[in-house]
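Researcher: I'm preparing a figure for a lab meeting and need a structural model of a single chain. I don't have an experimental structure, so a prediction will have to do for now. The sequence is pasted below. Please return the structure as tokens so I can convert it later.
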Amino acid sequence: MSFPSELKYTKDHEWIKVIGGNTALVGITSFAQGELGDIVYVDINTVGKTLAEGEIFGTVEAVKTVSDLFLPVAATIVEVNSELEREPELVNSDPYGEGWMVKIELTNLADIDGLMDAAAYEKLVG
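Model: Understood. Here is the structure written out token by token.
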């Protein structure tokens, strides 16, 4: 299992990657998608909403279960990965790339500093 070092991680198995200024991408980790199994649907209807850290920004539906998606930091949801509508399995095949879920504008860039780095996340999941 890989944990890219340029990402930050949460105990709820989301990752975040700053892509410029206060803009970042958010998705679920390889560990999370492996635990969920085959992803069949991603439901995110929070575009334009400003949410607090830890708030639910959507759900992901797998063959076995439905799981909430938690925002790693306070932010405004600015875009949903439209590819997931046609190909939700991208979350399984490329969780850190094409399987990203939302693009956000961070309320405070410094909030990223409170998240886990790759080594700490790897230790969490064993």
